[in-house]
């Protein structure tokens, strides 16, 4: 009877993962209008003849007025103000539209980069100076107000080169400005489109790469950001150290965006091309219930219990589930390692508790795994960042270590997660390398375009190597198989123990991940945590 109950739980877990919305929605965005006339017309062509549905405009750019005129003639084209604090190209420069000497060089231009560029260490960069947040705010307000004045259909804000991700104060400023000017669009549920382009990928491969990703893209909402341009004399004058093939590279993007086969795949698969305006309308009409932070109804299963954390970080109670093995009650003095399992988007603390715990129980019974405690936090739709991140690392871990007989040290603590939770596991292990000894992701991913996150990885590898931290990274061949490619390359280069797996004939289905990778995943995690 016990085995039948476990099989039913496993079946329901797999069925829940399958029975999801099958639609594919992509927000295709073309960046950097205003930087050059070639970029302006390439972005328009990508919209009129291709799959682009939103464009971003650099207001201080030398060709901003030309971009604004083109966009006023196309009121249906969605537009974002591409907030700008850098001027990266060697052959052309732009200045702020206000007086802000703390964020400009001796000639009055924006600095080339936000962070230090290792390929051009002599180049000045924003985070290397004593920037003034008041001057930054004044400049960004001026950019927003001029952009709105010239282009009536502006719907949102975005960051050129991640220019506001360098400090918490700057991030908060972005949120404040977006809300104040009513240019906020909730994309917290939207995933990054799988990698298909980038300066390191030959232009000749971009069309085929985009076709391939569109053919295999699973259901969900995605953001695809790229930079179309023409390979002409104007674009050939753009570039900086480390990125000299700008014209060829961005012409490859334009070709992919307007490729007839790409448009045929979009039509055949019923892929919806959406804009920020569409996502904004949808989020306002969103009928999803608000996140329920306390969900005490859990399956009747041995060792499973529901608990409440009175979270100061969140400002309200948050539920979590704990599973303890049979031996926990029998050996009243023994202490146990802890695995934190992070659920996917749309889930809560109860979503995967029974399914994953039943697999743990079976592995322990077979002798494949020594007894462990498992904790299931409620992460809402947070991506395990922000206040949820603070709640887990600053409050939940200490409460669990106080309330249960854990081995309360980093060497006996691991992370496992699915989808959003898989990405969250890797993220938390990266930002808090001293707190965990293993992180495993099923169907997740990590994007390292954010220079701050990349630098965090580079900083953390020294701690990981010293502490023998390991990463188990598994995706399906139909579920972003390249999602950890760049991260895994960095782990390999640093000599960090990891396994990178791609499962055959596997889409975004937790039941399939359990069946096809969990024994190996648990064995890997067990090697890296102390019992």
From TrEMBL:
Cofactor(s) required, per the database record: Mg(2+)
Keywords: Carbohydrate metabolism, Hydrolase, Magnesium, Metal-binding, Signal
GO biological process entries: carbohydrate metabolic process
Endpoints of the signal sequence: 1-19
GO terms of molecular function: acyltransferase activity, transferring groups other than amino-acyl groups; hydrolase activity; metal ion binding
The keyword Signal is assigned to this record: yes
Domain of life: Bacteria
PANTHER family linked: DIACYLGLYCEROL ACYLTRANSFERASE_MYCOLYLTRANSFERASE AG85A, ENTEROCHELIN ESTERASE-RELATED
Protein name: Enterochelin esterase
Species classification: Bacteria, Pseudomonadati, Bacteroidota, Sphingobacteriia, Sphingobacteriales
